[in-house]
Amino acid sequence: METRCTKKGSGAHNFKGGLTLWLVLWLVVMKPGEVTACPRLCVCYPMPMTVSCQSQNLVEVPSGVPYDSQRVFLQNNRITELRADSFAFETQVLWLYGNNITRVEAGTFSNLRILEELDLGNNPSLRHLEGGAFRGLEKLQSLHMHRCGLATLPHDLFHKLYSLQFLYLQENQLHFLQDDLFSDLVNLSHLFLHGNRIRALSENVFRGLVNLDRLLLHDNRIRQVNRRAFRDLGRLTILYLFNNSLAELPGQAMKDTQDIQFLRLNSNPWSCGCEARPLWEWFRKARISSSEVICTSPSQRRGQDLRFLREMDFALCPLPDPGSLAGSTTTTFSTKTRWWFSKNKPVSSSKSSYQKSSETVKTFPFSAGKPQHVPKIAPETQPYKYELSADEAALPNLGPEEYWANYGNEDSSIRCLELECPPNYDSEAFPSSSSLTITPSTLHLLCLSFPTLSFHFLFS
User: Fold this and answer.
1) What is the DSSP string of 243-296?
2) Any domain includes 275
3) What is the pLDDT of residues 77-98, one digit of tens each?
4) 391 occurs within a structural domain
5) Residue 361: inside a domain, yes or no?
6) What are the tens digits of pLDDT across the range 353-392?
7) Which domain holds residue 340?
8) Total number of domains in the chain
């Protein structure tokens, strides 16, 4: 009987001890005091600590946000300014999109050392950022600044953002990108720049982006791409350049993107003359998924796809200039080109004149296949004058612009090679005009030979 009572008392004691332990654990885990410290007009959730203050017409960042918050949502309010003292807490995720932010003071986020995602998108009045706006965000992985009305970006805006992987800058008012703007973003994999007003891509604009995987540049006004603009983008797999103003894209620029898999170049005014040959040659070797590349000029190739042009379409083109940063061409012509011009040189005329430079050849506008009048030049620099005949104008695969631009560079001393030669080109049955020229020495030799020949026929 005594043993039975002892067991019963021991069980009651254990039950009370377990209940007390459970209450202690509940107080430690739930932390009711911290949950009740949620800012006014906000809702807080524990595990992970989340503070949601969205769509409350707030005009500034609220005070009282728990210091160890992990997610703070302040989107769709009326916050106008972010200052260095705006954030007295730490968080990993901070959403501020859809506000009326006009200014972000330098050092604003310097206390957010563990911040990984910052969304400032859809703040159309945020047209300027100070250079040190993102100072201290060395763990930031994703930065959203789309639809902010940004016209320029300070050269040190992304300084030391070594962890950044996603950068959203689409649908702003950017006209140009400074050299080395992204040079510290060595881990960036996605760069969204579409929907801006960018006009050119310089040599060092993407320097440092050695891990970039996707580059979206469509819906801009890009006219020129430096042939070394993509030299650090060896890991790029997706490139969008459609809906721009590109007439030419250097082949060397594309050679630097050896891992490219998806390329979109449609909706550009592509010129498919000689300047397109480097890009055409790149397409012949590349194994990628590409959009169509429709030619708009010259007229005889309008509507054709650059990728499917034939080699003979570029037979009369000058060789590329390896020293040109823009991928342009010089007046160095192939043997075939020189032979063709030497055999088809038209009759001289004084109706039109064309000036040749030692480095570049200017092409003048044409109307109905005939060159228009150009200003006269000094007699000492007067170039050759030509008139385009009907037969020459009808030559296939050679536009009038290319035809006239290349005149004056022929070299009749260059002989044709291999299959470029016409039948019996080197035969004695087709002597050149120079071989029939009678010189004094030739006449003297004939006079000496005549008596010998006569004597031979007389006694034979």
Assistant:
1) SS--S---HHHHHT-TT--EEE--SS-EE-SGGGHHHHHHHHH---EE---BEE
2) no
3) 999 999 989 998 999 999 999 9
4) yes
5) yes
6) 333 333 333 333 333 343 344 344 343 433 333 344 454 4
7) 331-422
8) 1
